[in-house]
Amino acid sequence: MAIMSFGQKFGQVKESIVLAIDVLRRNRLRSALTVLGIVIGVTTIITIGAVINGLNANVLGSIQTLGSSTIIVSKLDWAGVGRPTPAMLQRKELNANWVGGLRNLPHVVAAGAAQQIAVYVGNAAGGMSEVRRGNLRAANVILEGDTPSIADITNLDMAQGRFFNETDEDRRLPVTVLGHITLNTLFPNGEDPIGQEVTIEGQEFTVIGTLKPQKQALGTGENPQDNTALVPFSMIRKMHPENKNIILLAKADSTKNLPVAVDEVREYIRRMRKLPSEKDDDFALMTTDSFVQTWNQISDGIFIVMLAVGSVALLVGGVGVMNIMLVSVTERTREIGVRKAIGARRINILTQFLLEAVTLSAVGGALGVFLGWSLVFIARLAFPSFPASVTATLVILGVAVAAMIGIFFGVYPAWKAARLNPVEALRYE
Question: Do 300 and 391 belong to one domain?
Fold first, then answer.
């Protein structure tokens, strides 16, 4: 009996769906105009959701280059949202000589110093140096000085050659490691750059290595962080003694001990700064978690905007669905009366009209998913580095939200149809 009952119910649902599709097919233009709002809403959700997915992958990939157990000490908070406060800008610079003390901390296995010659807009760096090779010129290059231990702390991805060693640092040797964009600008024909001479700010340097392209966290096109020339830290101090933009990096002995290492680094820097216990830190201490948390705040804000924009369009579409279903109930009053007269129950009428509303909305959701995917696909063709990806979760979400809109806005018209008096319905002209 249970099997028969299930089969009957399935047959009734199937029949209701067929009737719903037939009604939509007979009123194609009206149905298309009705679902337009749902199509726009779902398209918005799919498109912005795809961009957020792509940005998440890019940002997390960029953060991973720092290493999961890396600690960064800086004058300013790079992980913060917004501009630095006047109090932050007045902080004292860090001292590169503190690297030795950081190395001796119990849960730190490596420490180093780095310095960039760049212009900062917000938290983004732009180069201001020039590198030449003969008549070829790379402009707006980020000049960066690193101690050899930086290669052990961060996940530097070398393409060719080697990184700096202690001999390069101690002897202030004029050697350099070029970023991907700088390399292609100075060696456009694919020449082997290792051992070649380039001129950085008027001084000759020997190329000893090159870097692979870095992932770009936000935006498309060339990554400014690939337009770089790395030199030994001692060399950049010699070239730019006036620049004090120094950051210190330390690597914890394990990800598990990272919080302990952070406390050790904080205590050491405070001791070097001679800060009393009641005074707040006058430096920024960051880990990869800091950058992840900041990005999560940004992506959450984008998601809220996406939800607001998409909800407005979905609300308009939902109202359209309710309106068209009410019109449909009025137009088919006699049909409802006939069906009730030959034995149809209220639940059958309710199910039929509710399924019509859900089918209408689901079709709009499916069209919205297709249109959103198409927009993302076209954008990826036009801009190969465009950070966007449509996932199965987004597709399911788009169709499910559209169907729920159909249920919510289709309940009242369906209930109204089910409540019609069969005698009065048969008399309706």
Answer: yes
Residues 216 and 158 in one domain: yes
* Mean pLDDT (whole number) for 148-164: 86
User: Domains in the chain: how many in total?
Assistant: 2
One domain for residues 182 and 276: yes
The four Cα atoms 188, 189, 193, 198 give a dihedral, to 10 degrees, of -50
Average pLDDT (396-422) is: 82
Average pLDDT over residues 222-241: 85
Q: With 80 as the cut, is the pLDDT of residue 423 above it?
A: no
Residue 220 lies in a domain: yes
Domain of 397 in residue numbering reads as 12-61+295-427
Say yes or no to pLDDT of 205 above 50: yes
Give pLDDT, residue 1: 42
Say whether both 308 and 423 belong to one domain.
Answer: yes
Same domain, 215 and 304: no
Is 47's pLDDT higher than 50?
yes
SS (H, E, C) the chain: CHHHHHHHHHHHHHHHHHHHHHHHHHCHHHHHHHHHHHHHHHHHHHHHHHHHHHHHHHHHHHHHCCCCCEEEEECCCCCCCCCCCHHHHCCCCCCHHHHHHHHCCCCEEEEEEEEEEEEEECCEEEECEEEEECCEEEEEEEEEEECCCHHHHCCCCEEEECCCCHHHHHCCCCEEEECHHHHHHHCCCCCCCCCCEEEECCEEEEEEEEECCCCCCCCCCCCHHHCEEEEEHHHHHHHCCCCCCEEEEEEECCCCCHHHHHHHHHHHHHHHHCCCCCCCCCCEEEEHHHHHHHHHHHHHHHHHHHHHHHHHHHHHHHHHHHHHHHHHHHHCHHHHHHHHHCCCCHHHHHHHHHHHHHHHHHHHHHHHHHHHHHHHHHHHHHCCCCCCCCCHHHHHHHHHHHHHHHHHHHHHHHHHHHCCCHHHHHHCC
Q: Tokens 């050790």 map to which residue?
A: 264
Higher model confidence: residue 303 or residue 131? 131
Q: End of a domain among 282, 316, 349?
A: 282
